Amino acid sequence: MGDDYMGDETKNVSLTEGSTNDEMAVECEDAKDGLQGDVLPDNRLTEDTEDTEDTEDKIGKSIASFIPQDEEGRKKLVRNLIVAGVILVAAVLILAVGLPGVTYLQASDAFDSGDYSRAIALYGKAGNFADAAERKETAQKALYYEQGKEKMKKGDYESAISLFEKAIPYKDAKKCKEKAQDADYYMKAVALFDEGDYASAGKSFAALGDYKDSLDRAKTCAEKLMEQQEYAAAQYIYTALGPQFEEQRANADDLAQKKATFESALQCIEDNKVDSALDYLGKLPDDFGCDGKTVGALKGQLNAAKPIMDLAGTYKSCDPSKCRVTQTSKSTGYYYWWESTDTITGEDLSIDASLNSDGSVHLSGSVSFYRYTNFSTIGEYVNGSSVSKSFSLDGTGIPGSIPIDDQTSLVRNGDGTWSLSWSESDNSHDLYFDYLYTANFRYSK
After folding, report:
1. Bridge partners (DSSP) listed for residue 390
2. CA dist., res. 186 & res. 200, Å (int)
3. How far apart are CA 173 and CA 142, in angstroms?
4. Which of 108, 255, 390, 435 is surrounded by the fewest CB atoms within 10 Å?
5. Inter-axis angle of helices 71-112 and 132-154, to 10 degrees?
6. What global pTM score does this model have?
């Protein structure tokens, strides 16, 4: 058996070794033909590939048939696809969160884009979804905030303050409100300064501190007030400006106190209290002055005017007085007279005195007295009544007399009393006689 095996193997080897090239070529060709006949998968792969290519080609042609060939058509197709996509997304959102949720998302998108009015409306429509109510409030404050900024740009600071107040605590609304308040306060202070109200303007500028040029403006206001002798107002501003103006403050305070004393003296003069006025003036240096008046000059005027000013007061009739009628004959000159039978009392004299700017004294007042008012040759039938007459005059010395009218005058007596003389003539009432009616009264304090 082993020999047979070896012999067959040797025979095959020999055959192979003894074969020619042509014979090997035939064997290779036969092998090839046999192999080709057995490889069916390769043929099917080729056929499947061809079928796939045909199918893809058909699908591509089908898709291409839906695509417009013109540019406008393709744009329209794109828009339609976008709309379809949006609808699809909206549908998905509605399924996911419901209609209020979609509105909430739209509101949030509007808020993020700065469209706060639309966000407010949409959050309102979202109802109780999530934190829609809180978000709506935030959107409202954001709207107030933006409106406030616009008002600031236009210089409408009062409106800006109101809007920023409503916007708090959104972003830096509180700080913006403070800025608007400062700007508004500053502009109003400038207006007061331009109007010449330096006291009000200075207080406002001082309160603003280092805002813009407020400190410099406050200092200017104080200086102008000092020039106008408004020392108290200037002192207030210097105090507000701080320790660096302590010297100016102290000076303004000293002058303010002196002015107050001076004004007290003037009030006493107006009230006819000369002695009190001189007491106040004695506390001040002679060179101090206000409103064009100096202490020294005013003291000189008061000392000179004091005797006249002392005339002021109320005087009462001090002696029993009667009215008299004197009857005189026109032909012979013979006369006789009679008096009222009743004693007349209760009459008075009132004198006011005030110092004029030139140092003279203005005296004014009124005097009441009894006089006859009808004519009769019989004394018992003569009637009368009280009358009041006023007077005024200016002078630099005590007057010896004060004329009141053509029938009436006051005379100053050496004892400080006043005598009134009244007389009235009737020369046409009777053909034969003239009548003279007189009255005399004396008044003392």
Report:
1. 366
2. 12
3. 9
4. 390
5. 90
6. 0.57
